[in-house]
């Protein structure tokens, strides 16, 4: 997938924003200053009364916008479309995203601001075709800046959550000096098996473990793929000087393994974790 670098040049190309467009806006900036108070008062009133999104616009949020309204205003009406403009849009978008405000609610604020600003241009007799086209281009660019920021923020949060889940799904614990335990629960697919392998080898190396216990009593399904994953894990640990014991081998699991014809002659197995721990203690003391 092609990674898009959304910088100033990208937005200018994407929305055909030219120096002439920015000049059209800047030329009307001084006259438009008289409209600032009315536009923001209309915006705040709209936020407080919005039928769907008002709960996402508390008074402290409105106060934060009011404290920075001059910056928003000047950036827009003066056509300050530069790196600072993009950075400002992203900074406030990040604050909105972190407070849990949905993207739709943020976009609604932007659209309302742009609508009230458009009406202000009309009141001042400044709504020429060229100027309104330039204004539309900046509005569209602003919306994409916020949309892509929300998307990146959500993706980062999702990756962090997935990483936390992976850590929870591979909870390696040192239960005794030189003895590690990894209790497996649920379904094991290739991705989870890879994560388990990495976690196991990392812990074996870090803690210089002599025995690693894999408890599979909570594994939902034992098939050829799962069994092969377990075999690979035991062989990998052996290469690092660590003996691997698989515990929790029930009668049904043993029967499944036999029926599948999987060779596990080189693997140490026990019926319970207690037996595995006793065996591990014996091996570390010998």
From TrEMBL:
For this UniProt record, give its keywords in alphabetical order, as a comma-separated list.
Phosphoprotein
Specify the STAS domain's residue ranges. 169-280
| Signal peptide annotation | none
Coiled-coil regions, chain positions: none
User: Matching Gene3D superfamilies, A to Z?
Assistant: Globins, STAS domain
Q: What SUPFAM superfamilies does the record tag this protein with?
A: Globin-like (SSF46458), SpoIIaa-like (SSF52091)
Q: Which CDD domains does the record match to this protein? A: GS_STAS (cd14762), STAS_RsbR_RsbS_like (cd07041)
Q: Which InterPro entries match?
A: Bact_StressResp_Reg, Globin-like_sf, Globin-sensor_dom, Globin/Proto, STAS_dom, STAS_dom_sf
Task: Report which superkingdom the organism of origin falls in.
Answer: Bacteria
Q: Which GO terms describe its molecular function?
A: heme binding; oxygen binding
Pfam families with a match to the protein in the record: Protoglobin, STAS
Under PANTHER family, the record lists: RSBT ANTAGONIST PROTEIN RSBS-RELATED, RSBT CO-ANTAGONIST PROTEIN RSBRC
The name of this protein is Anti-anti-sigma regulatory factor
Q: What is the lineage of its organism?
A: Bacteria, Pseudomonadati, Bacteroidota, Saprospiria, Saprospirales
